[in-house]
Design a protein that fits this description.
The protein is α+β, with helices and mostly antiparallel strands. Helix content is 28%, strand content 26%.
Length: 191
């Protein structure tokens, strides 16, 4: 019995140290990327103005549907603005780093039917026939993006942790950035 408990403790300590090392490495990589791009982020989360102005420490993605309904099986054309000041907090009134014509549709099956938060797939376009590759919030430039709303992961750590570990052991894994998403049209929705 003692050998079993010692073995379990050894495994738990080993997994804990691997987790700690990978989280530290991800933190260092994020700091290096920010230093390389000249983007320094302050995550104080404190705004020095009243609560009447929307404020977020995360980048803000505004989607204006022009009163159209987003559908599951077909895309609709929308206007998207990305506000990411890289220093301090972001506000809806701040100047957008990107204003683009885009398409949007619901993403997922079980999450679409059963969850309060919906996931979206967006594609940026320069014109209605030519896609626009954009480096959203410092990630690589692509035209296709997913706004993932992990409804079951209330801590927002599950995907972040697993993608980080996957990048350590595999050649490629998705990059995850937390953003504040606001849907404008006939309703306001926030992820």
């Amino acid at each position: 019995m003692k050998k079993f408990l010692v073995g379990v403790c050894a495994i738990v300590l080993m997994l804990g140290s691997i987790l700690y090392i990978s989280l530290e490495k991800m933190n260092l990589e994020a700091q290096e990327v920010m230093a390389d791009t000249g983007k320094i982020s302050l995550y104080s989360g404190e705004c020095d103005h009243g609560e009447d102005i929307f404020c977020s420490q995360f980048p803000i993605i505004l989607v204006n549907t022009n009163d159209q309904e987003i559908k599951k099986n077909s895309k609709i054309w929308v206007n998207i603005s990305v506000i990411d000041r890289f220093m301090g907090n972001n506000h809806i009134e701040d100047e957008a780093q990107l204003e683009a014509l885009s398409t949007i549709k619901y993403r997922g099956n079980s999450s679409w039917f059963g969850f309060d938060k919906k996931q979206y797939r967006i594609e940026f376009y320069e014109t209605q026939n030519q896609k626009l590759d954009y480096a959203l919030t410092g990630m690589g430039a692509h035209s296709d993006w997913v706004l993932n709303a992990p409804f079951l992961d209330r801590t927002l750590l599950r995907n972040h942790l697993m993608y980080g570990i996957s990048r350590e052991i595999m050649e490629w894994a998705p990059i995850l950035i937390i953003v504040k998403y606001l849907l404008m049209g006939n309703i306001w929705e926030s992820i």
